[in-house]
Design goal:
This protein has 345 residues and is α+β, with helices and mostly antiparallel strands. The chain contains 5 helices and 16 strands. The strands form 4 sheets. Strands 3, 4, 6, 7 and 8 form a 5-stranded antiparallel beta sheet that branches. Strands 11, 12, 14, 15 and 16 form a 5-stranded antiparallel beta sheet that branches. A 3-stranded antiparallel beta sheet has the order 1-2-5, with no helix packed on it. The termini are far apart. Belongs to the type II cytokine receptor family. It is a single-pass type I membrane protein. Heterodimer with IFNLR1. GO terms for molecular function: interleukin-10 receptor activity.
């Protein structure tokens, strides 16, 4: 078969490269006594989960450890030191700006040269697949999706938070068919209408950055079968919603009116007990001219008036022929009656 040699060619080529690398490292160690640097250094970043990876070089004198750093505030900061792993987590880097990363191999007091890498998370990270939920409504599919989340960030933050040009590509097709349809939308849901009834459709979604022309990973296909019933016309749905809203408003108004009426009756009953006017006073006040007479009968007080208390004492004459009269002067003092002589002792 012609395909067999090509299938075996790739493993053989990889083995040849590894053998050449191992031989070169052995010659370098034997000739110069140097520790070889890490090989195939790369950044594996998905949804800002930044993992620096490398391969350990061939070193016949023993196992190697590694140190990885990044440049910050005019000096390199250690992230992983003396690790035997061939990877290091740089997920705490700022999402924006270029970062200089480096890694080296170490053995005892010896170490290799640094291998440097430039990395910008917001530009270089890969976009993972979104979460997708598909529901069936008559001969339509309601597709809801959300952008992938980010580790070590608040729960409400997603990949969409960091990209203004984020859109979704929704792709759907009949199950078993190669004819696909793609819809772009900025919302977190899409309704696929006018589908064939009783037919199974498959849907998958990906994030897409328009300004970078960068596509994310597709989600796993979700397949659902449409039902045989047709969806109601849109005007019927709108009318039903409006009717329900009007009925709810009327019920609320009736409830408020009944509540106010009950409060009014309770208040009237409480404040009217024992405070009713007598019947004759009600009849008196019911006539308008009586109101004026009632208020006019009370003199207006004058704070400037001064009153003196006056006591009158009258004494009959000795003859008893006259009648006693009170005599009061203009000044309010008491004097003897006219023609009356005081008695002598």
């Amino acid at each position: 078969m012609p395909a067999a040699p090509s299938a075996l060619g790739a493993p053989r080529a990889g083995m040849a490269r590894s053998l050449r690398s191992w031989l070169g490292s052995c010659l370098l160690v034997s000739a110069l006594g140097m520790v070889p640097p890490p090989e195939n250094v790369r950044m594996n970043s998905v949804n800002f989960k930044n993992i620096l990876e490398w391969e350990s070089p061939a070193f016949p004198e023993g196992n190697l450890t590694f140190t990885a750093q990044y440049f910050s505030y005019r000096k390199f900061q250690d992230v992983c030191t003396g690790t035997a792993l061939t990877q290091c987590d740089f997920s705490r880097l700022s999402k924006y700006g270029n970062h200089t990363l480096r890694v080296r191999a170490e053995r005892a007091d010896e170490h290799s040269q640094w291998v440097t890498l430039i990395f910008c998370p917001v530009d270089d990270t890969a976009i993972g697949p979104p979460r997708v939920h598909v529901g069936v409504v008559a001969n339509s599919l309601q597709v809801r999706f959300s952008a992938p989340g980010i580790e070590m960030e608040p729960g409400t933050w997603t990949m969409r938070t960091f990209y203004d040009s984020w859109v979704y590509h929704v792709q759907y097709w009949k199950n078993g068919s190669d004819d696909t349809h793609t819809v772009a939308c900025q919302r977190d849901f899409e309704v696929l209408r006018s589908l064939e009834p009783l037919t199974t459709y498959c849907v998958r979604v990906q994030g897409f950055l328009r300004d970078q022309n960068k596509s994310g990973e597709w989600s796993e296909p979700v397949c659902q079968q449409t039902s045989g019933a047709e969806a109601a016309p849109s005007w019927i749905v709108v009318a039903a919603v409006l009717g329900a809203a009007v009925c709810a408003t009327c019920l609320v108004l009736l409830g408020c009116s009944a509540l106010l009426w009950c409060v009014y009756r309770k208040t009237r009953r409480v404040f009217s007990r024992g405070n009713a006017l007598p019947q004759h006073l009600k009849e008196f006040l019911s006539q308008p001219h009586r109101h004026r007479l009632l208020f006019a009968s009370f003199p207006c007080p004058d704070d400037s008036e001064v009153f003196d208390k006056l006591s009158v004492v009258a004494e009959l004459p000795r003859g008893g022929g006259g009648s006693g009269q009170d005599a009061v002067g203009d000044t309010g003092s008491l004097g003897p009656p006219a023609g009356w002589d005081p008695p002598t002792t």
